[in-house]
Amino acid sequence: MELKVVNTKGKETAKAVNLAETIFGIEPNDHAIYLDVKQILARKRQGTSKSKERAEISGSTRKIKKQKGTGTARAGSIKSGVFRGGGRIFGPRPRNYDFKLNKKVKQLARKSALAYKAKENAILVVEEITFDAPKTKDFNTILANLNLTFEKVLFVTNGDNSNVHLSAKNIIGAKVVSAENLNTYDILNANKVVISEGSFETINNILN
């Protein structure tokens, strides 16, 4: 597949980029995508939920009633989870939700996500975007020129361009990542993926 390169004014240039069939033309693997997105979201969880169990509750340790003859269930402690004010039974504890995922599965997931976007014609190739200083207004102008003002857009840059990243930080729906940090969730979460011309070499090196 070949895509024309557009400039920041939204005009097509004489240049074109060939999308590698080994990445953008594969048959997407939905299960690989599911596993990778699940891991990405799991890593974002703080895992700090905590509730007190019966051993951590303050209260009397006396036996609250005799063992037999009451006609009700036996009870040994007021701190039991069956009583009001007692501890939580099997409550949450701090934990890490991350799990291991093979590198090749993560590669396949990113390839599959990019292949879906290619099939949907949701990939746009632009010339390299550079700012001398963070300028939200200039970034908004580029979005308007590309007719992406009201879209959820993922910009993929070649290298870590901090000025471009900061320019998009306050714009709802826009996100900037470097080609090295491209992940499956960000690709699928965007309506349009805008890839800079110089990013394709990095993407090919990482995913092939």
Automatic annotation (TrEMBL):
Region named Disordered: 45-77
GO biological process, one term: translation
GO cellular component: ribonucleoprotein complex; ribosome
Keywords linked to the UniProt accession: Ribonucleoprotein, Ribosomal protein, RNA-binding, rRNA-binding
Single GO MF descriptor: structural constituent of ribosome
Domain of life: Bacteria
Similarity field: Belongs to the universal ribosomal protein uL4 family.
Self-association state and partner proteins as the record states: Part of the 50S ribosomal subunit.
Role description: One of the primary rRNA binding proteins, this protein initially binds near the 5'-end of the 23S rRNA. It is important during the early stages of 50S assembly. It makes multiple contacts with different domains of the 23S rRNA in the assembled 50S subunit and ribosome. Forms part of the polypeptide exit tunnel.
Name of the protein described by the UniProt record: Large ribosomal subunit protein uL4
Origin species: Putridiphycobacter roseus
Gene: rplD
